[in-house]
Q: What sequence folds into this?
């Protein structure tokens, strides 16, 4: 079995969770970590057992022994970080949302294509067995023609001006951080090109959306998405069709449980698949599968899906007149 030398850029919250999953994957080598601070890189490397600790992202990108880089920095930093890795011939798994806007995502994708490198958005939801089970039920017609999706991702986050979530400079806001999940779900089940998107946002004092509400109209279906930092614990998703519905367990994007319901709301099948590690192993396995097969794009998280959702989010922000600095 080929082993891959992984590198992680950024040492924040999700980098820790991801490193935990990497540690449990046999064909992953915890090779390097890069931070803006050498001390943070060293401490992260010691915590998880990475061989190399770099005090700059550039030094890491220039290391010739790295096979694939996982980028776990704030949204505003993704474009520069991804481009740095591509220039240095690295395959990339980049956290969601892959950039601030669709134009950045397009540039990253075309740069990786030019160099023949692998690039994937770390949309772990799309690699999870419960999500794939829902797609299987849907594609085999178990709920009939899709009619309506409701998907929410809302949690209370206390205001902290130093948190990237509230910072325009970091690409903060609920849209890029949270709505990217339900919008991805809607685009997978109803289609990548809604006829119309209508949305509203509550823009906070720092200029990013604290919550938003998005309606997506399709020819014969519609979807309603609500996300934000101001409402506690609303993390459900349901896909309704002419014959029945698919109901995800709580925290729909990372749930281990999904149910198939008939048109009376009675559960007719339930799938429960526990994580082997912490749930991030599935996207790591997908990266390995692609690299093993010499693919530059994942069929589970294709570039077209990433671009479609970035376009939806551009449309929302345009209506809200919410721009990030230097956009
Ligand atoms: N897949 C998921 O479940 C999931 C969950 C949470 C977040 N995410 C995504 O992961 C990314 C990071 O989120 P996070 O919650 O881990 O963020 P975080 O805790 O703020 O960490 C981000 C890290 O990026 C680096 N960084 C580079 N430029 C920065 C800047 N200007 N300000 C602050 N940090 C900067 C820092 O590492 P150094 O100081 O070491 O350079 C920092 O620790 C985001 O794209 C987010 O959407 C995904």
A:
């Amino acid at each position: 079995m080929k082993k891959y030398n992984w590198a992680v850029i950024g040492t924040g919250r999700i980098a820790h969770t991801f490193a935990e999953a990497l540690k449990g994957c046999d064909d992953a080598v915890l090779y390097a970590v890069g931070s803006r601070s050498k001390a943070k890189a060293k401490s992260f490397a010691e915590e998880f057992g990475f061989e190399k600790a770099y005090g700059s992202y550039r030094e890491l990108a220039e290391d010739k022994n790295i096979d694939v880089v996982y980028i776990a920095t704030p949204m505003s930093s993704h474009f520069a970080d991804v481009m740095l890795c591509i220039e240095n011939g690295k395959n990339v798994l980049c956290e969601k949302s892959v950039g601030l806007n669709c134009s950045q995502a397009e540039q990253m994708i075309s740069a990786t294509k030019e160099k023949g490198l692998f690039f994937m958005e770390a949309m772990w939801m799309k690699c999870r067995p419960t999500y794939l089970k829902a797609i299987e039920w849907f594609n085999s017609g178990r709920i009939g023609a899709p009619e309506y999706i409701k998907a929410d991702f809302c949690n209370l986050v206390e205001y902290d001006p130093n948190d990237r979530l509230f910072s325009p400079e970091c690409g903060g806001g609920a849209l890029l951080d949270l709505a990217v999940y339900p919008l991805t779900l809607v685009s997978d089940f109803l289609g990548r090109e809604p006829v119309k998107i209508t949305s509203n946002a509550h823009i906070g004092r720092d200029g990013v959306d604290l919550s938003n509400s998005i309606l997506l109209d399709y020819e014969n279906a519609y979807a309603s998405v609500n996300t934000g930092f101001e409402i506690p614990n609303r993390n459900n998703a349901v896909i309704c069709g002419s014959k029945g519905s698919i109901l995800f367990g709580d925290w729909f994007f990372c749930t281990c449980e999904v149910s198939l319901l008939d048109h009376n709301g009675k559960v007719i099948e339930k799938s429960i698949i526990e994580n082997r590690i912490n749930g991030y192993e599935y996207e790591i396995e997908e990266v390995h599968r692609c690299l093993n097969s010499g693919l530059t794009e994942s069929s589970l998280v294709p570039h077209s899906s990433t671009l479609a959702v970035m376009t939806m989010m551009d449309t929302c922000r345009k209506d809200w007149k919410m721009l990030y600095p230097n956009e």
In short: Residues 10-15, 35-37, 40, 72-75, 77, 95-96, 122, 124, 164, 170, 177 surround NAP (CB under 6 Å). The mean pLDDT is 97. Residues 63 and 88 are 9 Å apart (CA to CA). DSSP finds nine helices and 14 strands in the chain.
